[in-house]
Amino acid sequence: MVTGEPPIDVQALRTAVRSTYASVSLEPRGEFIFPTGRTWAEDLGYPPELATVPETAVESFAGVANPFSLGRLQAGERVVDLGCGAGTDALVAAQMVGPEGRVTGVDMTAEMLARAARAAAEMGVRNVEFLEGEIEDLPLEGDSVDVVLSNGVIDLVPDKDRVFAEIARVLRPGGRVQLADVTIQRAVSDEARRDIDLWAG
Q: In the list 103, 108, 109, 143, which could disulfide-bond 128, CB 3.0-4.6 Å?
């Protein structure tokens, strides 16, 4: 985990990340350094609920793995999706938790949130909401969720201690975390840690 002063300009990083994922939202069939779209989600072994998520969301899917491989969500659970992007994971989750459950997607990219809201409207689901915010400072009350989902987002944040502190704050006692993310197995050079493009992609 990164502690102390981040090695880069955090505002510049946020701007770069927003720009990258705004592009994924606005031009989902563009060329990116990471895979995107429905075929990618299917290759990751997503559950059957993926089939009913509209292309509006799934064409901008940019996850790194399948957080639902860690277990299905239960009816009635309260869920937050950190860095929800265009809403694919949140909309799969909304189907799993059913009308008695609730899903909140949080993202800092307005273009992704607009796409997620359109997809939810297309599906006609009413148990999901999408909020603009940063995962280091979640717009949620403490002890308010049963499950925290996240897919390929925590690696984009320099201050991971703050992210995990927020996860601990919002999780109810006995809650669980289902994360899919990128990890590295060797030390990263100072030069690489200062490279905004490496962080943002």
A: 103
